[in-house]
Known about the structure:
The structure holds two protein chains of two kinds. Chain A is of the alpha/beta class. Chain A has ten helices and ten strands. Chain A has two domains: 1-81 and 160-255, Rossmann fold (3-Layer(aba) Sandwich), CATH 3.40.50.300; 88-157, no CATH class. Helices cover 37% and strands 23% of the residues of chain A. In chain A, the strands form two sheets. In chain A, strands 6-7-8-3-9-10 form a six-stranded mixed β-sheet, with helices on both faces. Chain A has a four-stranded antiparallel β-sheet with strand order 2-1-4-5, with helices on one face. In chain A, helix 3 (98-108) crosses helix 4, helix 3 runs parallel beside helix 5 (142-154) and helix 4 crosses helix 5. Chain A is globular. Chain B is mainly alpha-helical. Chain B has one domain (2-244). In chain B, helix 3 runs antiparallel to helix 7 (100-125). Chains A and B meet through strand 6 and helix 3 of A and helix 2, helix 9 and helix 10 of B. The structure holds adenosine-5'-triphosphate and magnesium ion (MG). Adenosine-5'-triphosphate (ATP) binds at residues 15, 17, 19, 21, 39, 41-47, 87 of chain A.
Amino acid sequence: xxxxxxxxxxxxxxxPDGCQAIRDISFTIRHGESxxxxxxxGSGKSTLLMLLLGIMFxxxxxxxxGDVALTKKTLAMIRQRLQLVFQDSDDQLFTTSVFDxxxxxxxxxxxxxxxVDTRVDEALEQVGIAHLKYKAPYKLSGGQKKAAAxxxxxxxxxxxxxxxxxxxxxxxxxxxxxxxxxKCFDHTKIITSHxxxxxxxxxxxxxxINDGTVAAIGPTEEVLxxxxxxxxxxxxxxxxxxxxxxQGNGRHDAD
Amino acid sequence: xxxxxxxxxxxxxxxxxxxxxxxxxxxxxxxxxxTTFAFLLFLVSFGRYEIxxxxxxxxxxxxxxxxxxxxxxxxxxxxxVVEPLxxxxxxLNPLFDPAGWLTFASIMIKATLTVVAALVxxxxxxxxxxxxxxxxxxxxxxxxxxxxxxxRYIFVLVEELVxxxxxxxxxxxxxxxxxxxxxxxxxxxxxxxxxxxxxxxHYAMGLRGxxxxxxxxxxxxxxxxxxxxxxxxxxxxxxxRFYNWPxxxxxxxxxxx
Lengths: 255, 257
Ligand SMILES: Nc1ncnc2c1ncn2[C@@H]1O[C@H](COP(=O)(O)OP(=O)(O)OP(=O)(O)O)[C@@H](O)[C@H]1O
Ligand SMILES: [Mg+2]
């Protein structure tokens, strides 16, 4: 039950228009690990996540969750354990009030009304938008929508939490709150982000994707300090590491 | 542009109305659905020359509107949208039938009451709760799904339209509306985007366990007040169907000759 290992073997995917978004990706995520996936725009991060959740099926290769291969047959079972926060919150929110949206998932799993209520309240409290409970999602600001989208997923109590660009549009306080949520969430989590400081803060392992392939995989500190690798993949060393190395070299007064 | 934005707000208005709190809103959706359905059945059961007998039926939507505190202007606006259609259907009657104006009037009254009753039902119940009421009444899942998703799809369509119109108008500020030349691609693009977004929304629903049936909203069973409401109104409809109240009233007031 608690084996939420995720294994990806030689994954490849082309969109119907012929764009080969994923060329050949393999990696294993162990139970309880937190993994950051980074890469330039269009490198294939979002596509990879959708393949992990069976929103699309790979043209080659395989995804295994626990020891179960992801197929149309095992989809429903696997989706009970994996949850995704979409890059675009508008894709995630579709009902008439924040409450209904957050309650949608728990209701689908036939929880009792009181249980649904508690889950919704908890989730909204966690992301700090309890006061927006009855507002229509389309009337929220960008960052509030993001928070609501995250709440919809937290209310599902997933075993594996997957987030596509969770901090885009969040103000510093909300971003900090999200980082705290992520740190408290002690199951497996997978996060794609351009916010490398977030990845540094919350992920043990980092996978660098470049043009649909894995360019590097390793402990986050190590990967994110590798300037040469990051530049090759059109990324930059995060500010906090730069500062740290400056301080380490005692050069901070030279600049 | 402003028009479209307010249309968007308007289209969601019924969702907002449905969240209001009132005695009518708190009634069980099944009770409201059955009562409205009975209302419509009784309406159409009248012959085409029986106009006077229709008048007491105005009481039902009127009661609902007042009790639920629904705003009259938006209701009226929506009614205006369908009214030309109704006139179009009814207007041929006077041409072919000497008593055609009576038929015309009866069609107008019946259709208008039908539309108002439907609007009131959605405005006091909301589409999602209506859907769960339909399930409870054993309407096939497929049908309910079709209804709710169509309803949602309209929002997605309008939202995408707003986004595209905004982007278009910001870069074509000299002209009003969309030029004829851009119209085709614009509409095509709109449909593609809407489909795409509907698809992604559908993914998101699937990920949260949606399997072709809207979850129950945890409504409990019918309470006494729901039964009183439904039976009371159906009783009233029965009385209006079999007694000609307006005529009786006329007799009473005018005295028996
Ligand atoms: N629906 C689609 N149809 C065709 N090609 C697509 C589609 N979605 C994405 N692509 C292409 O697939 C590639 C990978 O896209 P993807 O969205 O996975 O990138 P990403 O790494 O998430 O980028 P970003 O950081 O900008 O979010 C891109 O080249 C993109 O143009
Ligand atoms: Mg992406």
